[in-house]
Specification:
By secondary structure, this protein is α+β, with helices and mostly antiparallel strands. It contains six helices and five strands, in the order H-E-H-E-H-E-H-E-E-H-H. A five-stranded antiparallel beta sheet has the order 2-3-1-4-5. A hairpin with a 2-residue loop joins strand 4 and strand 5. The chain is elongated and about 100 Å long. 25% of the residues are buried.
């Protein structure tokens, strides 16, 4: 491969790393072409961008970025696929789904999620349980709505009771 081609690939990888908030590194070497195609379709449905890369080119792309990604360098061995996502746990859930189906791949090598490093397959359960931004916003809205709903409910039931009391008093006066 020409040096110019390598530089173009490094630039594309670096651009994707900057575009997405989270990325997972996985090994998909044991998947055949048909299973890899299915994985790509599932990734696409969940807004996950899957890219198979050479480790040296990925390392050079990481070195171009502002942050320090040295924690990931030791796992850049063998086959590496990057799963880019703005949803913190979507790739983890997809990998976990494959693991539950007794698939050996994709195998989690590591991840950079919410500005934290997760190294090794044993971190998958932690990554699955991370709440996405949408889930957190939903929880906050639910918490904020709860007191208002209680007040409205109390006023409505209080209004019914008050209406009943007024009706009874009115009837007694007549």
């Amino acid at each position: 491969m020409k040096k110019e081609d390598k530089n173009n690939i490094i630039e594309k990888i670096a651009a994707n790393l900057q575009e997405y908030e989270n990325f997972y590194l996985a090994d998909i070497a044991t998947l055949n072409a048909a299973k890899t195609s299915i994985l790509r379709r599932e990734c696409s449905k969940q807004d996950i961008k899957l890219l198979v890369v050479k480790n040296t080119l990925l390392r050079k792309a990481l070195e171009k970025l502002e942050g320090n990604y040295e924690e990931l360098y030791p796992i850049l061995k063998g086959n590496t696929a990057i799963m880019f996502s703005n949803d913190a746990n979507a790739p983890a859930k997809l990998i976990d789904k494959y693991n539950k189906n007794k698939e050996k791949a994709p195998a989690l090598k590591g991840a950079y999620v919410q500005e934290s490093f997760f190294i090794g397959a044993n971190t998958l359960k932690d990554l699955v349980s991370i709440k996405s931004k949408t889930e957190l916003i939903g929880e906050v809205i639910s918490i904020l709505q709860s007191p208002a709903k209680n007040v409205i409910s109390a006023l409505q039931s209080g209004g019914t009771i008050l209406h009943g009391v007024l009706k009874t008093l009115s009837e007694k006066q007549n």
